[in-house]
Amino acid sequence: MMNRRKVLTGTAAAIGAFALPARSQQVLTVGLIPSEDSRAMIANSQAMMDMLSKALGMPVKPFVAADYNGVIEALRSKRLDVAYLGPFSYVLGTTVADIEAFAVAETKKAGRTSYHSQVITHKDSGIKTVADLKGKTFAFVDPSSTSGHLFPKAGLMKAGLNTDKDLGRVIFSGSHDSNAIAVQNRKVDAAAIADRILDAAISKGLAKREDLTVVWRSDPIPESPTVWRKDLSADLKKRIQAAFLQVKDIPWSDQGLLNGFHPTTDAAYDVIRDTAKLLNLDLKKMK
Known about the structure:
The chain is α/β, with parallel strands linked by helices.
């Protein structure tokens, strides 16, 4: 099991190298998870930043950390005000930082506030079922990734595959895009990936749908929440939520074009906590 305190401590030093705005500045800082290249993440989120800035009457600056833990640590150390986190990284984050989910996005393509995790293979791999994964090389995304680790690991376990013993070499690639590319180029035999991010990777030409086979698909997972630090003023939180709920018809991070945001609460992510329990994960010891 990973030593989360050690990871977070190391990440804090890395964050110090970035010129994040000082807290005395009237700037809202927004953290993004690294589901794709950091420059692409910032570029794809710029319309959102501009819209929020106009609604709030203050500059809004995006920040992409090297990994999920980087965003969580930046929230914990109060270098970020708001962040877009994966469902599992959010649940882990609540054990480290005083944060709370307040909004969830609905994409135009999906028309829903949930998504699925998938395990994909190359069509020429010979892998057709979960049982065929035994002894094969496998890529997860990040230990704190919901669709890239937690749900596929639990799902494969339910299907009779022990990912700690039955798989061959296992890696954490760091991003969903990397997993799509690795399977497409046959660098690994199989990989976990979110369905909507796979769709985006295919649209970008990183993979070809006709070359891929889905051998496992999860039940619906609540979409990635947007969270704030609880210690922000009540007035600012009210303004932030109102600004997010006004957003529509613009691209947002890796999610594509949005219908808009909906209010959400911490309780909506209890399904993530239940899945962690299935894997016997002690969230507090993962700090």
